Amino acid sequence: MVDKQSGQVICTWFCNGKKHDFRLYKESKTRNTSKIEVITDSGYQGLEKLDANTQMPKKKSKKQPLTKEDKRKNQELSSQRVINENVIAMLKRFKIISDRYRNRRKRFGLRFNLIAAIYNLELIQ
Asked: Which residue stretches of 30-107 are H helix?
């Protein structure tokens, strides 16, 4: 999770192996207060049921293409999500999440949180 205003990493959660982001979110038991607005990508389908204050882009189907208003809203949401994607790209420069992790799995969480703390510290300075 990334703070929209400051761009700082707020919360991290990970697991062993491959797991879908939304499934990982559900298993993390991290819940949002009603004051915070959540902006996600379309991979989090069903999050509206868990959190009412969620915005995600509308998907098209074969029978219902997107209207111009839907496309405009999707573009607006993606421009707000760019902050999150840029933070992920900055964290990938450390190679811990872009390459295969070949060290002890027990220490992955500690190392990733330290990298997130270094990133947050760079933003402050």
From this structure: 47-50, 68-92
